[in-house]
Amino acid sequence: MKHSTTPQTRRGHRGGPARRIGRTLALVLPVVLVLSGTLAVTRVNWTGSPSSSVLAASDVSAAEAPARRVSHAPQDVLRDRLMTELQSRDPGVVLTHLQQAVNGHPRLARHCSSIARALGRAAVRIYGASRAQSYARPVCDTAFASGVLAAHS
Predict the structure, then answer these.
(1) φ, ψ of residue 69 in degrees (nearest 5)
(2) Nearest one of 89, 93, 94 to 119, comparing CA atoms
(3) Cα separation, 17 vs 21, whole angstroms
């Protein structure tokens, strides 16, 4: 009997378990990466509203270090201040402050309607639709009233 020094190969065998795992990963990994990327994009707050509890990836550092403040646009600062004020004062006072802010800073006029609508929606949550509507007046083209209506319907 003659022994050969060359290793015998099995014909018809397509690879061991490592090769099967590699093929499986090659098929599954791109799908997992695409799905996780898609889910990450859907979780980002694209509205720009700070009221959402969902944080964008860039907002994590701001959440971890509250001492570091992110500068906001003047209209965002005004909206946030008025929303906070709405918690302790009636909407009539808050609308007066909105009108005064717009009169004092004319650049805010183009944001007045969106701020007033947001105040109207918040007033419905706090006071209810009929009471919130009683505070409506022609500040920023009756945008407060349209915010109340949008929140009520």
Answers:
(1) -95, 140
(2) 94
(3) 6
**Average pLDDT, rounded, for the chain:** 75
- CA-nearest of 125, 117, 128, 108 to 150 is 117
Which pLDDT band holds residue 64 (cuts at 50, 70, 90)? very low
Between the CA of residue 13 and those of 2, 16, 40, what are the distances in Å? 25, 8, 41
Contacts of 55 (CB under 8 A, 6+ apart): 45, 63
Give the N- to C-terminal CA distance of the chain in Å, as an integer: 93
Q: Tokens 């190969």 map to which residue?
A: 9
**Cβ proximity of 132 and 105 under 8 Å:** no
Chain centroid offset of residue 82 CA = 20
Q: Is 84 exposed, middle or buried (0-12, 13-18, 19+ CB in 10 A)?
A: exposed
Radius of gyration from C-alpha coordinates of the chain = 30
Contact criterion met (CB below 8 Å) for 91 and 135: yes
Q: Which tokens go with 34? A: 């695409």
| Crossing angle for the helix pair 112-127 and 143-152, to the nearest 10 degrees | 40
